[in-house]
Design a protein that fits this description.
about 200 residues, alpha/beta, Rossmann fold, 7-stranded mixed beta sheet, 7 strands, about 20% strand
């Protein structure tokens, strides 16, 4: 997903955690928007995505085929792991990260969607999508669950994750005006948090 709405705010988290000039690889970079943004913030950023456009900073390969690039101080994956070949991607990330390198993940857990989420989403979605609980499960059942993503990465990173629960539905709709309300309902435990940020560090 190349749309900047998915990495909005997450770019600031990355920037705050890394020294200026750090080498950063964006996995599943799409059109390279986040790569450009990280470059503006002072990082040596490149992206990898089989569907990336031709660009000197973009590698048109999946992360498991990235070679000859050396190692990176940080790797970022925004909305990439729920449809990735997880074991291969996790092994590649481990290979490409330098010791004590950081991993930044922003993804979503479709299995957290429940009747509360459906009741919130249905009246706000103008599309004809079936946002019932059964419809949501049918549409997303071939994607990795959040716990599957965390388990695959946890097998490669011995340092505990920092995990932050995040809104997802408002961004899915492209409704920035609804995100604060969704976040407040998550904090009040009225809505489930489908989105999550993970930050991990590679062991020495």
């Amino acid at each position: 997903m190349a749309d900047s709405r998915w990495w909005k705010d997450f770019d600031a988290v990355i920037a705050a955690a890394l020294p200026a000039g750090s080498r950063v690889l964006d996995v599943g970079c799409g059109d390279g928007g986040l790569v450009s943004r990280l470059g503006e913030l002072g990082f040596d950023a490149v992206g990898a995505d089989p569907a990336a456009p031709a660009h000197p900073r973009l590698i048109r390969e999946p992360v498991e085929q990235v070679k000859g690039q050396g190692t990176f101080d940080a790797i970022v994956a925004v909305m990439a792991f729920h449809h990735a070949r997880l074991e291969a991607a996790a092994s590649a990330i481990t290979r490409l990260l330098c010791p004590r390198g950081r991993l930044f993940v922003y993804d979503f857990d479709w299995s957290a969607y429940d009747d509360r989420a459906a009741a919130w989403l249905v009246p706000r979605d103008p599309s004809d999508a079936d946002n019932s609980l059964a419809g949501w499960r049918r549409e997303h059942n071939d994607l990795h669950r959040g716990m599957t993503i965390k388990d695959a990465l946890g097998a490669k990173f011995t340092v505990p994750f920092v995990e932050v629960r995040r809104p997802y539905l408002a961004r899915m709709l492209g409704r920035a005006d609804l995100e604060a309300a969704e976040h407040a309902l998550i904090d009040a435990q009225v809505l489930p948090a489908l989105g999550f940020w993970l930050i991990a560090e590679k062991a020495d």
